[in-house]
């Protein structure tokens, strides 16, 4: 079965157009609608459920790619920035006016095409906003509060290094009571570390990174069965290593202040399914529509959702195709993949079985980018996705190789919205251009840009706005997404059969304290491969 897909990818890849093709004309972003032409015909491959909504021309990966224009992408991103900057918060955090306006914008743009069944999926999630300060022996240290951390104010309090990685109660010594725990990141999620510290009666927890760079994260849920959370912040590896070294020869006193607000908020996923195509064999793709508190989130993940919206509108210009295509615009991704998990949890086994695959596009225009493809076959990072994920990875590799563009693998670690899908055996894949991870010298030679700094220096920051987009990467990657969408809309016959979903009891056991555990090693770099704050 794998060879069939490779042959299909090679044949289609030979038709690809270079991303710099100047002949590709712009189409109005707010346009769409019927362009006329032949409404008949059948493309072969999967069964075609003809509902009479096909448009003018025959779909091919090449033709769909040619419909993707940087002006349309730019216009969409500007709309998101305008929505954010029209509010006092100047962001698009879920449940805010700007995010609700984003949801309405996406819904209305898709609805007026007449090509999709469009819905808003209502849900309620807990919003949290925190601030913190951390100092040691009177010296201020850069820190970031963990989402869902409780408030606290520990002053002139002894700092104690926790044993091992702080993932079992035995790692927390009795003398930690009334003190601040210093904990290395890794092996288990932040929520468990904070809960175990709280259970040991620590008055605070400071988690230091295990890779270069600062650490911002989330405890993943408002509570944890392992114990009450200690007020928790993250610090960089550099600061943490220095504190560990100093604790070997001196006592350290710290001040740790956190203040958190909590509110239940109603919010929405936007879901659009083509009226044409086999509704029992759905090709799906998505990105998240919310931002963090710091800024408007134009790369994270405006780049992904506007790319998907442009593809969705471009697809309306083609006549019927064999497989239905479903677009997801997820809410509350930045608070722990809440929208996508809510959706998958809401599916019946029969509904779940109709989704043939899921493609994820989260941060596709990082200014200091490296083009990264999720490692579906596990050949680099030793975690293999569900059956079919390797073939999806190979399809994206084919696209970039035919474009003569370099690419590298990205860890397929379940730390973006595809996690809910792979957890139930649905194959997945996608493209990612990097977040707070540091670009290497080798990567700078491959992709250009600057070694030694982050792929996105404005990741989760106020500067993630219209000036924070690498348009060359964005266009190239959105066309790659279009290539994959068209390929699978035409046929999924080259994919192997899906893995059976895990037993219901196992799926329930994978959720602890409202947070789905990641069934992979916990000591990897979160480095976005997601659009959210890290949970581990």
From TrEMBL:
Which segment of the chain is annotated as a signal peptide? Answer: 1-19
The biological process GO terms on file are: proteolysis
Q: Where is this region: Disordered?
A: 25-62
Q: Which InterPro entries match?
A: M28_fam, M28_SGAP-like, PA_dom_sf, PA_domain, Peptidase_M28
Residue limits of the Peptidase M28 domain?
A: 269-479
Task: State the source organism's domain of life.
Answer: Eukaryota
Q: What is its EC number?
A: 3.4.-.-
Biased composition range(s): Basic and acidic residues? 35-62
Could you tell me the keywords of this UniProt record? Aminopeptidase, Glycoprotein, Hydrolase, Metal-binding, Metalloprotease, Protease, Secreted, Signal, Zinc
Q: Does the keyword NADP apply?
A: no
Q: Name one GO cellular component term.
A: extracellular region
Compartments (UniProt record): Secreted
Which GO MF term does the entry hold, naming one? Answer: aminopeptidase activity
Cofactor list: Zn(2+)
Q: Which residues form the PA domain?
A: 158-243
> Which PANTHER family does this chain map to?
METALLOPEPTIDASE M28 FAMILY MEMBER, PEPTIDE HYDROLASE
On assembly, the entry states:
Monomer.
The family this protein is said to belong to: Belongs to the peptidase M28 family. M28A subfamily.
General function of this protein:
Extracellular aminopeptidase that releases a wide variety of amino acids from natural peptides and contributes to pathogenicity.
Name of the protein described by the UniProt record: Peptide hydrolase
